[in-house]
Amino acid sequence: MSLVKPSERTPLAYQIGRESIDEVVYDFYDRIQNHPTLSKPFSIVTHWKEHKEKIAEFWWVVLGGIPNSPYKYDPVNKHFAAGFTQELLEDWKALFFEVLSQHLPLNLAQAWQSRVELIGGNLLMQNDRLIQKILK
Ligand code: HEM
């Protein structure tokens, strides 16, 4: 068995390709706008084109791509303001994996979804911390 050093592995962003990342993100947010539970919190988004572009760039960088745009993110406060909950996160993850599975081979879909799990868990923890802080 030949081992590939982490520094020599092709980042997931390049294995998937920017075009496919854009397609996944655009399809996902098109479906969100008609989703039974997710459409409501997402009704605060008014500029969908900008939102999709920003999130596509977010994933490109999270998956190891070299940044193209200098976006600033404030995800914890923005998700708190949008009414983020564990239930909504479960729905979000299920829809995301459905979209991933329709666009990508299973190994790439699973690899991307494992990043979703990490970030989702982190968002939930930080959202809970923010709630505890406010309740104090
Ligand atoms: C793993 C799951 C999720 C990831 C990776 C994710 C990622 C992101 C990112 C990167 C942004 C941009 C934040 C910024 O501009 O600073 C965003 C915005 C947003 N997210 Fe999520 N999100 C997730 C789950 C959810 C869930 C469950 C909800 C439901 C409440 C949600 C609702 C929103 C809304 C409404 C915005 C737009 C906020 C605004 O522009 O004011 N997200 N998300």
TrEMBL record:
InterPro entries named among the record's database cross-references: Globin-like_sf, Globin/Proto
GO molecular function terms noted in the UniProt entry: heme binding; oxygen binding
Domain of life: Bacteria
Gene3D superfamilies: Globins
SUPFAM superfamilies: Globin-like (SSF46458)
Name of the protein in its database record: Hemoglobin
Provenance organism: Polynucleobacter yangtzensis
